C-alpha cells in the first residue's frame, strides 16, 4: 500500500514501516520517497524504491515465521536487510555496498542492536555481507537460528 505518509509514530527518516499488530505495510509514494534524495548513501531511483518495498515485505513475511513470541529488533532487521540487498539489481547493490564500506563480519556478534541503532543502513550492508559469506547450508541453518531466536536474542 502506498501512502503519502507513514503513521505518526514512524521516525521522519523512515520511508516505510511494517506494523505487525495490524499486519499492514505503509510506504511513502515514490515521489515522496524521492524527496529524501539519497538512500543507503546513493541517489534514489526505482531500484532503491523496489528495495524499500522488499524490505517491508520481508518484515511482513518473516513476522509469521518467527518461532519466538517477541523476536529482537535486530533479528527482524537482519532478515529484512538481507532480503533488500538480495533483491535489488546487482549494479544498485554494488553501489549501495560501496557507499557503506565495511569488513565482512565473522559472526553475528558484530551485528548488535547497538550497531543497528547507531546506523541502520550500515547494519543492513553488514548483515548482507555476513549472510553472503556463509555457505548455502550455513545460510539455511543461520536463517533457522534467527527465526528460532537462537541468535540476535535481546
Topology overview:
Elements: E1 2-3, E2 16-19, E3 24-28, H1 30-34, E4 38-39, E5 42-43, H2 46-63, H3 73-87, H4 90-99, H5 113-118, H6 120-133, H7 136-147
Parallel strand pairs: 1-3
Antiparallel strand pairs: 2-3, 4-5
Helix pairs in contact: 2-3, 3-6
Oligomer: single chain
Individual helix count: 7
Order of strands, widest sheet: 1-3-2
- Helix and strand sequence: EEEHEEHHHHHH
The helix/strand class is mainly alpha
> What is the CA-atom radius of gyration, in angstroms?
15 Å
User: How far is the first residue's CA from the last residue's CA?
Assistant: 31 Å
Question: How many structural domains are formed by the residues?
Answer: 1
| Percent in strands | 5-15%
Mean pLDDT level: 91
Task: Tell me about this structure.
This protein has 154 residues and is mainly alpha-helical. The protein has one domain. The protein is built from seven helices and five strands; from the N terminus they run βββαββαααααα. The chain has a three-stranded mixed β-sheet with strand order 1-3-2. The protein has a two-stranded antiparallel sheet with strand order 4-5. It is globular and about 40 Å long. The protein starts with a strand and ends in a 7-residue tail after the last helix. The mean pLDDT is 91.
Jot down its keywords.
154 residues; three-stranded mixed sheet; two-stranded antiparallel sheet
Entry summary:
With about 150 residues, the chain is mainly alpha-helical. The chain has seven helices and five strands; from the N terminus they run E-E-E-H-E-E-H-H-H-H-H-H.
